[in-house]
Amino acid sequence: MVSGRPTARPWLPYTAAIVAGFAVIAAAYLIVRPAADVGCTPLEVSSSIEKDVLLGELAERYNKSDRRYGDRCAVVTVHGLASGASTEALAGDWAAKQPSLPRPQVWLPTSTLWTGQLRLLDEAAGRPAQTPGQYPSIANSPLVIAMPQPKGKVLQQQGPLGWGEILGSSGRTGWAAFGRPEWGRFTFGKVNPNLSTSGLAATIASYYAAINRASDLTENDVANPAVTQFVRRIEANVSHYSDDIVDLLKDRAEADLSAAGTATPTDMSAVVTQEELVYQYNEGELSPTRGEKPRVPLVAIYPKEGTFNLDHPYVVLPSASPEQRDAAADFLKFLQESPQQQSLGRHGFRDHERKASDPLAASVGGGGGGDLTYFDPPDPTVVKAILTGWGTLRKKANILVAVDTSGSMNAKIGDLTRFQVATRAAVKGFGLLNSEDQVALWSFSSETGQRPKSPYSEEVRLSAFKPEVLTKEINNLHVEGGTALYATVRAAHRHMLDRYDQSRINAVVVLTDGTNEYNKDNNLARLLKDVALDPDRPIKIFCVAFDERSDFATLDRIAKASAGKAFDARDPAKIDDAFVKLVSSF
C-alpha cells in the first residue's frame, strides 16, 4: 500500500480548503506503464493512493490476460494521486496542475464525497458537471473507531455504544466511565477533515450521530446549536489532529514492535480510521518489518447509530472517447469479478457489494462482518457547510514556537538566507491558525551579547494568536551564536507544562537547521526522560528540520518521546509542505 499526504487548510475559502493544498504535497505514483498493444484502446486511470499500487497490479493482470470485449482490447495504465489533488486538477487545467501525469479517462477516488465536490466546483465555474451521477463501487471500507484490543474489549462488553458515548461524554470522566479509572483520560486521534477522506467522513458521522438519523442531513441540521454542541464535545477529546492516518498507525506499529515491547507512547485511547487500515495494521502490513504482526492488535468498534462508508467509486469521465468508455466498462467488469475482488479483500477491503470476508471480520474483531447501518453521503453543499464550520468547532491549541536563531541560519539558500527561507515558511504556515488559538514565540541559539544570561528568550508571551504580531517579531529576530537545542526544548516543555490547559491541544514547535551545540546541556537521554509523554498532561513536541545539516534522527526521537512528530524539510523545496503538515496537527 502507498499512503498519500494530501494537504489543504480549513481556514481558507472553501474551494481552496477542500482541494488546493492537496496538490502542494500529494504524492503521485506511476504504477504501471505497459507497452501499448497495437490496435488496443489506451485507458488512463487515476486512483486514490491507498489503493493505487494494488490497482496497478490488477491493471497489469488485465493487460496480460489477452482479454477481449467484442473484437477489441484495451491497455490500462494506472497512476496514483490523492483524491483532493485529482479533484483540483480535474476542476482546472490538468496539465498545469499535474504536468507529470496524463489526464485520466477513469477516476477512482476514495469516496463519492469527492465527486460531489468536483460537481460543486464545475457549477461554480459555469461548466457542465463532470460527475453528475451515481457510480458503482469497486470496493468498500466502513469508518470505525480503532482501539487497542484490551480497551476495545472493555467497550464491547458495555453493549452497543454511540459516537458520543465513546468519543464525547466519555472524555469528561475518562475510563472511569467504563469501570477502568486506572486508564486515565479518554482521548482519540483523528485526521484533519480537510486533509483526508477518513477525517472528513468522521466529521460527517458526528453530525449524523447528533441528529440520530442515517440520511437527509441538511444545512439547518449543521447550524442547529444542539448539533454543533454535540460535535464540539467530540472534538474536545481529540488528542491532536494528524496530517496522515497511515503515519500515525505506522508509528504505533513501530513502537509496538520495539525491543522493549512497551506500549506506544501516546495519550490516545482510540483512532478514527477506515476498517481496511485496522486489518492492515493487524496483519503487519504497516509494520516497519512488513508482515510482522503487532503484539497488541487493534479492535474495530462500530457505533450503534451507524457509520460512514468509503465507497471507492468508479467514475468514467466525459473526456473519455466512445472507445475508451467501452474499455472502461470492461475494466470495471474485470475489477468486480471474483479473482480481483479477492485481491482487494486480501488488503482489507470489503467487496463491491459491501460484504466483508471472513478473514477481515476475524482480524478486526469488531463484529462488523454482518449488516451495518450506513450514513448516506450528504449533499455537497452540506459537506461545504460542515467544513466551513469545522474551523470553529475543532479543538483549539496552545502552541509555543521556538525558532533557531543560531549563526548558521545566515547560510545562503539561493538568494535568501536559511533564516529567511525558514521564517517566511513559518509565517505563511502559522498564518493559517485560528484566531482562538494561543501562540507564544521564543528565539534560541546560545548566550550572545543581546542575550547574555540564557540561550533562549521569550519574544511573544502565550496569548491570542495575532498573525501580524507574530510576523513582526519573527522579522525582528537577530541571528547569532550556537544551537542550544536540548536546553531550549526542555525549558519550552516546562513552560507549557506550567500553563497546561486541558481544554486545548498543548504543544511545542521547534524550528531548527542544526544539531545541539551547547556543551552546558548535551545529555539527550535526560532530555528524552524530561519530555516523555504524561498521558494526563500531554505536551506534544513537533520539530521541523530544514537543512541537510539538521540531526533529523535526534529530532525524531525527541518528538516521538512526547508523542509528537518530526517533519523532514531538509530539502528547502519541501519546507512549505512541512509547515502545511505541521499546522494541520492543530
UniProtKB/TrEMBL annotation:
Keywords: Membrane, Transmembrane, Transmembrane helix. The keyword Ion transport does not apply. SMART domains: VWA. Residues 398-583 form the VWFA domain. Residues 348-357 have a biased composition (Basic and acidic residues). The chain crosses the membrane at residues 12-32. Coiled coil: none annotated. InterPro entries: VWF_A, vWFA_dom_sf. Residues 340-362 are annotated as: Disordered. This is Ca-activated chloride channel family protein.
